[in-house]
Amino acid sequence: MLAKLRQFLWTWRGVWITVPTVTGCILLLRWLGFLQLLELAAFDQLIRLRPPDSPDSRIVIVGITETDIQTLGTSILSDADLAQLLTTIKQQKPRAIGLDIVRDQPEGTGQEQLNHVFQTTPNLLGAKKVIANDPNSAIQAPPLLEKQGQIAGVDVVLDPDGKVRRGFLYITSDTDETLPSLGLGLAQLYLKSDTITPQPSSQNPDDLQLGQAVFVPWEANDGGYIRTDAGGYQMMLNYRNSPFTTVSLSDVLANQIPADLMRDRVVLIGYTAPSKKDEFLTPYSSILVGNPQTTYGVLIHAQLTSQIISAAFGERPLIKTWSEPLEWTWILLWSGIGATIRWRWRYAGGVAKFSFPPLLFTLLAGGSLVGICYLAFLQGWWIPLVPPGFALVGSVIAITSYLAHQATTIRYCFSRYLTDEVVANVLENPDALNLEMQRQNVTILMSDLRGFSNISERLPPEQVASLLNIYLSAMTDIINQYKGTINDFIGDAILVFFGAPTQQADDAQRAVACAVAMQLAMSRVNQELNQSGLPKIKMGIGINTGEVVVGNIGSQKRTKWTVIGSPINLASRIESYTVGDQILISEATWQEAGIDGVKICQKKLVQPKGFHQPIPIYDVVGIGGTYDLHLPEVREEIVDLQEEIPIQFTVISGKEIGEERFWGKIFKLSVNGAAIRCEFPLEPLTSLQVYLVNPFSDNQIQGDFYARVSESLVADKTAVWVQFTVMAPDVEGWLRNQMMGIGVNG
To answer: From CA 117, how far away is CA 283, in angstroms rounded?
Structure first.
């Protein structure tokens, strides 16, 4: 059970790390207020996207237009005109009259007439600007109405972007004076006729209840707000998108309105003239346009009045929000959804590629988030949209970034085996995984250590691995330097391509130059091996050029990039003929690389398995031109032995050692080879395992080594010259002792 849990945690490790990290970052950005304007903009968009509301016929607006002002001949409505207007309105018996005109001094004539109207109109509310934003901004209501207690506040709440999204139920001044807002006061007057009066909420006595609605005071961090001014008793404005019935001042004074237009309704009187500058931005105002649509203040008070009345009757919901812990959980959820989607399909299109499945599901998740928030908003719930959206996308980006970093790591590891061109082709080319193969002329280099199997038998696995790492590390650097493509490490063998996947005109030349450089580096490799207490090694290299097919082979689930064709087999055969420190190339490579540039010391005819006729191979000792690389010339001292060394040997065929042993004798000896006389002629390039025999100890075997027949000695048909390939240090020391003090053959 614990193992399964560990496996589960590891399998989804990206999700466990990403979700809390991204959520924490989003919550920090939100707490700092960086997301507030975006959330308010999302709120505006939700307001605009709602289906049309039915008009609220309970509200009538009497607008004082620019035409009315010109007709009156003054920019200020006189007391006489206001008295006449109120008298005309009273005749239609409205439930409430709201005066959205702030004035505390008489205007023109008719003061007594206006006071009489004030005294005889109990359902009239005058306006007072309560909040003093500057020393001259607080304006008192008409003294008589204030004395009668028929005043209400007309202040509005401006958000940081200048829009009105909230409204006051009660307004508290700097002197702790509390007044109902004009919207609340008018709604209460209207609801009074339906015996609906303000009551403390049964759930919280500090909350106001009117009919079916409970008005919970807006807090500083509710919804998308962060540390906003929540002074007084505020609520979100649930704007109607249908117009209110509106008539002009002139129409009312001229009795050009229906006789029952205002009966049992709420009538608001205010300026709708742009010159009065009583205009505000609302959620319907797009700040992206040059002249955003504005809403007159009297219409905002009408919106608040309509909302309170509708909520009291249960017709339209109030805008509510979740608690902060629930909102945090909501953001965490969408961060988890984004992380899960991207992590689940992280390899759908390859490492760090944003393929179709995660893209599709991310878009579906984003659409679901918007749809859920929209449907909730229709029910009166304002739940976060921007933070979870950021969390969703942020988690996807975070995991994609991690996968991109992982791809970089993979590319680094991949580049240890292939050139940058191949890595770029596989990781960056959209068609890199195409299984179709194509014909290409390629030069194949195959290298192998001589007698590595024998070395592996004598060393523990850890030392074998250390030896290979030192050797392969040096060879890889050289191969990459000459832009070869390492296709595979086959134990101690290296398979390299020149001309795949990208071809160049000098592929064969670079292959030969690379081979020479690899052989030159073996002295440095052996020096490092010696310092590590590891045996000396020798390498043989075979090179062939030919037409092959290049591409990926395998299935859609697992592929391998490689080349296929008989030229690879021939390169392997040629390499098998090499002895230590030797480079053999085919006729095709010699022609391709340039006969004049490649330095040859010997030409041999061999007949590899599967070939009906012998083919020429060439022993390379250097390459000229821009590369100018040459193997050191070796002049061996050959010693004629006064006493021949008896031996037994077996013939090695491929990788198998023959069972039958044959007798022979070593009669000449050098550091790197020996002349052997045997019972029968041996063909050149035959591999041997040679056993040293002590004739004074009942022909006991006292050591062995590996060698390859280099050539037949013309003077003696049964004698051949063999080149040492692998030799244990003690055997090498014993043979050297046989050479000491003996004359040198001239």
So the answer is: 37
HSE-up (13 A, CA, CB side) for residue 12: 14
Give the pLDDT confidence of 44-81 residue by residue, as tens digits. 999 999 998 899 999 999 999 999 888 877 767 888 98
Structural contact between residues 94 and 263, judged by C-beta atoms closer than 8 angstroms: yes
Q: How many CB atoms lie within 10 A of CB 714?
A: 7
Q: What distance in Å separates the CA atoms of residue 230 and residue 138, rounded to the nearest whole number?
A: 19
Residue 450: which H helix or E strand, with range?
none
CA distance 746 to 740: 16
Cβ-based neighbours of 323, under 8 Å, separated by 6 or more: none
User: What's the rounded Cα separation, in Å, for the pair 512 and 620?
Assistant: 8
Q: Considering only CA atoms, which of 154, 39, 146, 24 is closest in space to residue 99? A: 154
**C-beta of residue 268 within 8 angstroms of C-beta of residue 305:** yes
Rg of the chain, C-alpha, whole Å: 48
User: For the whole model, what pTM was predicted?
Assistant: 0.63
For 219-222, the CB contacts below 8 A with 24+ separation are 221/324, 222/321
Whole-number Å distance between alpha carbons of 261 and 271? 20
What six digits make up the tokens of 738? 């046989």
Distance (Å, rounded) from C-alpha 621 to C-alpha 600?
6
pLDDT per position as a tens digit, 232-265: 899 999 999 899 999 999 999 988 999 899 999 9
Pair of tokens at residue 446? 């195959």
- Per-residue tokens: 718: 């049964």
Q: CA 26, CA 28: separation in Å to the nearest integer?
A: 5
Per-residue burial over 592-605, b = 16 or more CB atoms within 10 Å of its CB, e = otherwise: bbeeebbbeeeebe
DSSP per position, 234-267: EEE----SSPPEEEEHHHHHTT-S-TTTTTTSEE
Classified as helix, coil or strand, 674 is strand
